[in-house]
Specification:
The complex is a heterodimer of chains A (about 350) and B (about 400). Chain A has 3 domains: about 90 residues, Acyl-CoA dehydrogenase/oxidase, N-terminal domain (Butyryl-Coa Dehydrogenase, subunit A, domain 1, Orthogonal Bundle), CATH 1.10.540; about 60 residues, Butyryl-CoA Dehydrogenase, subunit A, domain 2, CATH 2.40.110.10; about 170 residues, Up-down Bundle (Butyryl-CoA Dehydrogenase, subunit A, domain 3), CATH 1.20.140.10. Chain A has 11 helices and 9 strands. In chain A, helix 8 packs antiparallel against helix 11. Chain A is of the alpha+beta class and about 350 residues long. In chain B, strand 9 and strand 10 form a beta hairpin. By secondary structure, chain B is of the alpha+beta class. Chain B folds into 3 domains: about 80 residues, no CATH class; about 110 residues, Butyryl-CoA Dehydrogenase, subunit A, domain 2; about 140 residues, Butyryl-CoA Dehydrogenase, subunit A, domain 3. A 4-stranded mixed sheet of chain B has the order 1-4-5-8. In chain B, strands 2-3-7-6 form a 4-stranded antiparallel sheet, with no helix packed on it. In chain B, helix 1 packs parallel to helix 3 and helix 7 runs antiparallel to helix 8. The chains are: A alpha+beta (about 350), B alpha+beta (about 400). The interface between A and B is large, with 53 and 53 residues.
Chain lengths: ~350, ~400
């Protein structure tokens, strides 16, 4: 066992970090809100770096890495607030030729689709499979998103679309894992912003970070983030250890969600698979809550300024919120774990 | 990152499992928690069995009689012994995990030869004389005085929270040898035999009604100078250097025991009624069990990260303070959940599925968990450590 990043993994994480700092500084990110969340030139840079083809095998033109690495990369994207349909585009890589791909679980009734103005296609996951809906087939009604970096449009009825794969096994797990990685990154970014402010902001003649009330809040932010990070990395390793990297064509024992699956396998009988599913759902709960709590604490530590549009604290919190109600509520994940205790 | 164990690690686990399968059935029933002579025999007897099988001092270097295992093997050892219900380190705790490592790093060859083999064989029980009534979180302000008189230190003062003080043979004792120097620079580390004249041990009754803690009073106790470990006034460094032995394994038994306990609670919830229906049919109870499991799984992953960092660099990562802070809160929530399910049975001791430290009693567990955010550095001190040492926030003092 060596549950610590390898030199290659550190280099990958640092490389993405440098890319984000160089190309997605906060002014650029804020600017993306005015162009639907995606600038095609910057998006192409992410694609060229291999961000979206990370887990596609090398023989199919991908980077050929595992889910653990995908988690590290998405963590850094979250930390820098990089907007766009990152999860959908990664999962579509190697399956469709679209550059910018949204992702949604087929709702009963109208759908709120992310990044309506910039996606080429939308992948729709339901219990029968995964379907590609061309953006041209979607007509959006305007909606005002809570998160300026996650614009949404309302679609009255989602078209059925063309089948991309005829099963849904593993899609929810993989999507949820990547959302969790983004959220661990958001929790980190919010904590870093709060700590920097606590060091520089003076009241009563001292930096506010010297007061235990503020210092302890920062310590709790760090703790949540570290525990969520451990859960995330474990989930990534469990995915790689269970099924190997890549997107398996064989449905195997993949699980969609309990009660909403035609999975033929007996999940409780497969110890390795159970460890993986439990790890993914656990990472999901902890990452979502760390991002939410750290976002709120970041606002709080900034005081009145934290309530302004000008300070970035709200951007972390809002993105954390936007990434939570996707592929199962936190309660559903808790239920899924409880069934395995 | 690789969470899989190597072939060598798997072989270590298999060998340990075989041994545990052989010896555990020979142990009989554990003694009553207030039968101190029997508890001493139980704990030290287990230590002797570990010694004979080559598992004693698992993390001690082999030149000092230890097994010299890697941090990962140490983790496997704790995982398997906990999973198979082997005895807890118990009153060998201070000797195995604190005083022993201190002697290995700082003592003279004579002191090492005198004590280390005896600790490994379960022939010496040690206790810790660090905290005082007026030196808790601010440990370095301790004031138990040691005055040099020829080849002895004459010690007068009071220690507190000394676990197993009434059973121990020796105490790792911090005393004030210089009252003028800055507080960290006037402390000395002594080996104190507990049978010296002038020592009085008084058990403290805890909120759970148990009495493993003691106060220890020193009235002109004469301790030979040859019992000093390290230089005079260098005892703070000697005490702190011991932490370099820590490899992130300190809470493994505790955490895995708690995970077993949660599994038992889930089984109970599937079988008992609560507010007139099955406890498991209550959404909040079921989801809280799921969340607690998620958090324990994450803390287990965090532990593996810290241990892996120790294996790579020799020093555990910063996860230790995070673990302790987070774990104390989660375990309190679990105890509260247990009591929701118990309803009026929560009024009486003796309900099942508590943790091993409290003899499987949920009510005793609910009380025991109150100590988790206090002992070995309060949660407030952990937050200071995280805030100042990890995040770089300015010190208050």
């Amino acid at each position: 066992m060596d549950f610590e990043l390898t030199d290659d993994q550190v280099a990958l994480s640092d490389g993405i970090r440098d890319l984000c700092q160089g190309r997605f500084d906060i002014d650029t990110v804020r600017g993306l809100a005015d162009c639907g969340g995606v600038d095609r030139r910057l998006w192409a840079e992410l694609a060229d770096t291999g961000v979206f083809s990370l887990v596609v095998p090398e023989e199919d033109g991908g980077v050929g890495l595992g889910w653990a690495e995908a988690g590290l990369v998405f963590e850094q994207l979250g930390r820098s607030l990089v907007p766009g349909p990152l999860v959908g585009t990664l999962l579509a890589s190697g399956r469709t030729d679209d550059a910018v791909v949204g992702l949604i679980e087929r709702p009963i009734g109208p759908a709120l689709v992310e990044y309506p103005d910039v996606i080429d296609a939308l992948l729709v996951v339901d219990k029968d499979g995964v379907w590609r809906v061309d953006a041209a087939a979607l007509s959006f009604e305007a909606a005002h998103s809570v998160d300026p970096l996650t614009p949404v449009g309302r679609v009255a009825v989602l078209p059925q679309g063309e089948a991309v794969v005829d099963h849904c096994y593993g899609w929810a797990n993989r999507a949820v894992f990547l959302y969790s990685a983004l959220q661990v990154g958001l929790a980190t970014g919010a904590r870093e912003l709060a700590v920097a402010y606590a060091q520089e902001r003076q009241q009563f003649g001292k930096p506010i970070g010297q007061f235990q009330a503020v210092k302890h809040m920062c310590a709790d932010m760090y703790s949540r983030e570290e525990v969520a990070r451990a859960a995330l990395y474990y989930a990534g390793c469990a995915m790689d250890a269970t099924h190997g990297p890549g997107l398996p064509a064989d449905p195997g024992n993949y699980l969609y969600f309990e009660g909403n699956t035609n999975d033929p396998g007996d999940v409780r009988g497969d110890r390795e698979h159970e460890v993986m599913v439990r790890a993914i759902s656990g990472a999901r709960i902890l990452a979502a809550e760390a991002a939410d709590h750290n976002g709120k604490d970041c606002v709080q530590i900034h005081g009145g300024m934290g309530f302004t549009w000008e300070i970035d604290a709200h951007l972390y919190l809002k993105r954390a919120w936007a990434l939570t109600p996707c592929f199962g509520s936190l309660d559903e994940h808790a239920e899924r774990i409880a069934a395995m205790v | 990152m690789d969470i899989r164990f190597t072939a060598e690690e798997a072989a270590f686990r298999d060998e340990l499992r075989v041994w545990l399968t052989d010896v555990l059935p020979t142990l009989g029933d554990p003694p009553d928690s207030d039968d101190w002579p029997a508890r001493r025999e139980w704990d030290t007897g287990w230590q002797r069995m570990l010694y004979d099988a080559g598992y004693a001092g698992i993390n001690w270097p082999s030149e000092f009689g230890g097994r010299g295992s890697t941090p990962t093997e140490h983790l496997i050892f704790l995982e398997e012994t906990t999973r198979m219900g082997a005895p807890y380190v118990g009153m060998n705790f201070v000797g195995q995990l604190h005083a022993g490592p201190t002697l290995i790093l700082e003592a003279t060859p004579e002191q090492q030869a005198r004590h280390l083999p005896a600790m490994l064989k379960g022939e010496e029980v040690w206790c810790q004389g660090f905290s005082e009534p007026n030196a808790g979180s601010d440990l370095a302000s301790l004031s138990t005085r040691a005055i040099r008189d020829g080849d002895h230190y004459v010690v007068t003062g009071q220690k507190i929270w000394t676990s197993f003080g009434h059973v121990a043979d020796y105490c790792e004792l911090l005393v004030r040898t210089d009252t003028e120097a800055p507080k960290h620079r006037g402390i000395t580390w002594l080996i104190c035999p507990m049978d010296l004249p002038g020592i009085e041990v008084r058990p403290i009754t805890t909120v759970a009604g148990s009495s493993e803690f003691c106060e220890v009073f020193f009235d002109e106790v004469r301790i030979p100078v040859e019992n000093r470990v390290g230089h005079e006034n260098d005892g703070w460094r000697v005490a702190m250097v011991t932490f370099s032995f820590e490899r992130g394994t300190a809470f493994i038994s505790e955490l895995l025991g708690t995970m077993n306990q949660l599994a038992e609670m889930a089984d109970i919830a599937r079988n008992i009624s609560c507010n007139g229906s099955l406890a498991w049919d209550d959404d909040e109870i079921r989801r809280e069990i799921g969340r607690l499991q998620a958090e324990y799984d994450a803390l287990w992953a965090l532990t593996k990260r810290v241990v892996s960092q120790a294996q790579r660099t020799g020093m555990p990562g910063p996860g230790g303070s995070v673990f302790k802070l987070y774990y104390a809160d989660v375990k309190k929530r679990m105890a509260d959940l247990a009591h929701r399910m118990l309803e009026r049975e929560a009024l009486v001791f003796g309900s099942e599925a508590g943790d091993e430290q409290t003899g499987g009693d949920m009510v005793a567990s609910r009380l025991y968990v109150l100590s988790l955010s206090i002992a070995a550095g309060t949660s407030e001190i952990q937050r200071n450590i995280i805030g100042e040492r990890i995040l770089g926030l300015p010190k208050e003092r």
